[in-house]
Amino acid sequence: MTQSQAEYNPVCRMLAERIAPLVASLYPDADQQDLVARFIEVSGISEAEVEVPVEYQSHWDERDIMVITYGDSVISPAEKPLQTLKTLLDKYLRDSVTMVHILPYYPYSSDGGFAVTDYESINPVLGDWSDVTAISRDYRIMADLVI
């Protein structure tokens, strides 16, 4: 026995609403409601514990400007490179830059920072987590996931 759309869980109801027009165009002479219900029934998702998918939300758009940099691209003898980066961002780019992509800042053995040896630490040559946190207070941070 098939379910009506009103009896579906929220995910099945969303699926039924999306496939109903397709079923109607493929099988104009058939009972489309019955075909949709049978499709959902044989898929096995009607009885499953499901969560309603969250609508995708972009984390940036055309208004954002991003700086992409290695942690040691800007240096000063008086401070760690991540501190110098924060100083540069604040002094010259605060009014335009919204995001900072810092290329690998983890300790590494080779490969220009991409052979990570400790995923929980900041390369001490660059600074420490307090430096990354300081940058993140004023700019959104993007970091590479190196696996």
From TrEMBL:
Domain of life of the native organism: Bacteria
InterPro entries: GH
Protein name: Alpha-amylase
Annotated organism of origin: uncultured Thiotrichaceae bacterium
